Amino acid sequence: MDIQVPKGLNPALTALGWLVGRWEGTGNGTDHDGGDFTFEQRIEFNHNGGEYLYYVSQTFLLEDGETGRPLGMETGFWRPKSDASLEVVLSNSEGWTEILVGKIQVTRIDLMTDAVVRAESAEVTHSSGQRLYGKVENDLMYALDRSTDVHELRPHMWARLTRV
């Protein structure tokens, strides 16, 4: 398996080194009302010498093949532990912060929500989730499931992104 570790990466981040970089592509989703949508996404994982990766994700609605309005933005920190466990702290433009915990398995990462804090103005009552990230044929693929106060855990967004 071809796993590259970027130069200057803190050794504590070696297990996440394959994520570092910018990824772009399209995906599909089901909104919290059950409607389907297609989106464009840009994700960047980077490092600054600390024992964490910092992360930014932006999604845009695709309408008739054209990039439309912003759907959302996330930013956060991915903090691996020496036992291959992982803590991820994310803040979302829709008005919540989520802490996820999980396991790193070479080029597969499984995460589950540990806690969600919502702002009073959050339109969606996001309450828990799970995420799966993986490197497949040199692309980043992921699936994100969410539950709210209105519905049980179900698929929300999934995409295949290419390193740019």
Explain this structure to me?
With 164 residues, the chain is mostly beta strands. It has a single domain (25-163), classed as Beta Barrel (Lipocalin). It has no helices and ten strands. The protein has strands at residues 21-30, 36-46, 53-63, 66-80, 85-92, 96-105, 108-118, 126-136, 139-148, 154-163. A ten-stranded antiparallel beta barrel has the order 1-2-3-4-5-6-7-8-9-10. Strand 7 and strand 8 (126-136) form a beta hairpin. The model has no long low-confidence stretch (mean pLDDT 94). A motif (GXWXGXG) lies at residues 21-27. Belongs to the nitrobindin family.
- Provide the number of structural domains: 1
Morphology call: globular
Query: Any idea what the radius of gyration is?
Result: 16 Å
The name of the CATH architecture is Beta Barrel
Largest sheet: 10 strands, antiparallel, barrel
CATH topology: Lipocalin
Please work out how many helical segments DSSP would assign. 0
Q: What's the average pLDDT?
A: 94
Oligomer: single chain
| CATH-level-4 superfamily name | Calycin beta-barrel core domain
**Unreliable spans:** none
- The strands making up the biggest β-sheet line up spatially as 1-2-3-4-5-6-7-8-9-10
What is the structural class? mainly beta
Distance between the termini: 20 Å
Classified by CATH, the class is: Mainly Beta
- The helix/strand series, from N terminus to C terminus, equals EEEEEEEEEE
Helix content class: under 10%
- Beta percentage is over 45%
Count of DSSP strands? 10
